[in-house]
Design brief:
The complex is a heterodimer of chains A (120) and B (373). Chain A is an alpha+beta fold. Chain A is built from five helices and five strands, in the order βαββαααβαβ. Helix content of chain A is 40%, strand content 23%. The chains are: A alpha+beta (120), B mainly beta (373).
Amino acid sequence: MALVGPVNMIITEAVKLNASDVFTILDPDTGGANTFSIALSPSGAANATHWGTRTFLEEETYNALKNMSVTQFKAYVDQVAAQRGRTPVGSVTAFKNGVMLDETMGFWDFAKAQGLKPVG
Amino acid sequence: MRRAFARVVRGGGVPQFNPRSLFSGSETGFLYDLNDPTGTYQNGGGTTAGAVGQVVSVVRDFSRPETVKLTTLPAMTVSATVSQNGNVLTFTNSPANDQASGNPGLSTHTFYRMTFIIEGTGQVLIYVGGSPIAFSPGTYTLQQWFSGAGTSFIFRASTGGFNGTVTFVELREQLGNHLYQSTSAAKPMLRQENGNNYLEFDGADDSLSTVKQVAWGSDVIDIVAGVQKTSDAAIAIVAELSADSETTAGTFGLAAPHSAAGADYRFSSRGTVLATASAAGFTAPIKNVLTGRGNIAGDSAILRVNGTQVANVTTDQGTGTYTNQILYIGRRGGSTLPFTGRLYSMLGIARALTATELQQAEAWVAAKSGVTI
């Protein structure tokens, strides 16, 4: 399995559920629902307004995230779901349109660039 | 006091000492040897050995021996074309997916090794708790990690069917405090430096845990870890019993660093009261062998760096033993205070090591870490 990364990703709290559904499929292991586990907020105080992750990705998933349209990405996620025997997700639109992605910075520099601090 | 002599120890430099011998009295603890080729696994199925440059899902605890769990196959639930006679499963022109399945009472988050013989035509898919592996006729030993998900024991005719027998020989079990991470984004990376393997924690979300509670059953802990911290920016957890050893009774913790920009290390021990042994002057990036020695009844919390004591705190720790808690590595409770750096090898034991044992344990970890002490 060729891995690409590490890749930083940050999403808003509103997108977290959809992101968890998507990564339940895209994670080759069983714990994809917990991919976005870094709690973030502008002040660092609870509750989290954003969630982040720093991860290596399968090359196909990395390319899909970087280069595909929402429609193409949905087809890719459905294809992976079928391959892995996982329940397809209804929509990927919120996650695909909402994810902030970076592969050039350390995670905390990337979070800082978004005006975010760790919660807790 | 620093010893008058220095020992230069690198990978394999102390062959006479086997750290597994420390646990010969069945002491509770953990022993993570990242250089053992069977010590790390890439996936939660436990079927793919760890490889440098790949993420790590499971780290094996070698503090407990492997023991024979079964020599007799339990009664299995079988499809119409499959029958059982003792340890022999007979597949009679079985189509794909016909199977024998059962639950031999496996423990979750445990390693298993099953030996079996396949005779006949076709292939058989076999699970011992982990992911299915296809086998052609022959004699095999299959090792798998059982996370606790799914059916634990399956012998299934593979694509194209199977006609023949599967003879169960034995099942071996290795209990212990194995480390696990099922979320790929949170898995540390296995890397190598001068022949020494280490886990690289990204300082964001990488962590491991025992998942199930460690039944420490003692008020004593000696922990030795080969650590390279690459950042002093924020408090970071190397190892911690419980989701928060600051506030949970009967816990211990090892932090690198323990204060933002503090360039320090800290070992903590807590009965009902927290005692902390810390030492500054260790500015990242820096690699050390860290030793924490805790004794609740003895009111002792000691931190050693590279075999030399750097802090000794005799604060009253209150009462009790280290309680049954999950052991977390690399992040507090798997959610905050991420460690940025490398973990080479680590052991912990629920008794006070003798002076000789402690020196041997530190030298062993130093050898695994490329540290001179």
